[in-house]
Design goal:
single chain; 176 residues; alpha+beta; Muramoyl-pentapeptide Carboxypeptidase, domain 2; three-stranded antiparallel sheet; 8 strands
């Protein structure tokens, strides 16, 4: 049986189309997905953004930086700690930031939303969080007695750790 030369072209184009569609589907599934109920999935499990809400503005956690969330997922995976259950503070309105004594140019402020405070129930957990956060790539780490501040603010000094109250040295500094 003799096939026409056009038939080969059609088979080739059909195969190429199927491969391109398959590649596109795989690409889309690996990207960030927005889902109803303010849940995002970034390469791992879904995250409910309400854990980052400023207490005075519902749905404000939607502004949280997706790269920051991805890094927090890595922190959770590497430490085994429930990072997203331990979020003390994420997005902050100016009023809430003032109420909690936040810096006037805080990276928590809406719409920037590139900072979180994570509960650290023990000194060991706090120090472990700080060490692993540095290894993941966090370059700005605040160390409190009962929490760890992490941000990805590239407009501020990098490879720095500080303590609380503001101006005190960090009890553990991963950058020295």
């Amino acid at each position: 049986m003799v096939k026409s030369s056009n038939q080969h072209i059609y088979v080739g184009l059909g195969t190429l189309s199927i491969l391109m569609i398959g590649a596109f589907v795989v690409y889309r599934k690996s990207k960030v997905k927005s889902v109803k109920n303010r849940v995002v999935q970034i390469h791992q499990r879904p995250i409910n953004l309400s854990v980052f809400d400023s207490p005075d503005i519902p749905d404000s956690g939607n502004c949280m930086d997706r790269q920051l969330i991805f890094m927090l997922q890595q922190l959770e995976a590497r430490t085994g700690y429930p990072i997203f259950q331990w979020i003390n503070s994420g997005a902050r309105s100016p009023a809430h930031n003032k109420k909690v004594g936040g810096a006037s140019k805080s990276s928590h402020l809406i719409p920037t939303c590139i900072a979180v405070d994570i509960k650290a129930p023990t000194t060991y957990i706090r120090n472990h969080l700080v060490s692993v956060a540095r290894d993941i790539g966090f370059k700005r780490i605040g160390v409190g007695k009962t929490f760890v501040h992490l941000d990805t603010d590239e407009t501020k000094s990098q490879y720095v750790a500080w303590g609380y109250p503001s101006g005190t040295p960090a009890e553990v500094n991963p950058f020295v």
